[in-house]
Task: structure prediction
Amino acid sequence: LIIGVSGTALQKKVSVGSPAKVELTCKLDENSNLKNPQVTWKRGSETISHTSKTRNSWTIEVTVSESSHLGNYSCILKGEIEVSATFHLQVPNIEGKEKPVITYEGDIAVMVCETEYAPMAWTWYMTNGTELVAINPSSHASKFRIKRQAANVDRLEILKLTKEDSGVYWCEAAFRLGGSKKRFELRVLSIFAPLKPFIAVVAEVVILVTTIALYEMYSKREGEEGGREFDQIEQL
Result:
């Protein structure tokens, strides 16, 4: 729905998991001041014609049978002002945790990927330099577990974590029109990491107490030596 305010450029994502016919409609708000606009549809930079039209709406039908049919489809309304709306046809995005996964040595790291539509297959990768290496839990049963929680939800568990497990991991969902990936960053900390602030505070206290004790010993020794000198002067 286009309000009809000058300079408006609306954006909408449309997930397409498998071949389908998709109808895209731009409808002008009835209260808009834009009257009888000239309407142009484009796929990327290529002009295409709309398949149906009513008084305030314009529709195209897109047959998506392969990945090359995905992309940006825009309607441009020109009159006293110009407004537009763009539909981004794409394979479904993978939802997952954006922040780094932070855990400790000996623990379990869990990563979960979820999509709007069920993919044909899931694949998990770990990064080795610049290469992605597929994770095969059957050959590393003591290290990795992959659990299919639902057709559109997959879960990777990394067991008995060590510092060497830190790095970047990916999950990939394969659809008939292409694949979609999600990146995870894993940070494995030493089990002593939570104790570092406490150890630092204890160290500061020990240093302070030691400094005070040494100062008192020095002051006491100076006092004793001063007393002996005073007695010698009296005797003289």
Observations:
- The first strand starts at residue 9 and ends at 15.
- Residues 105 and 162 are 5 Å apart (CA to CA).
- The helical segments are 196-235.
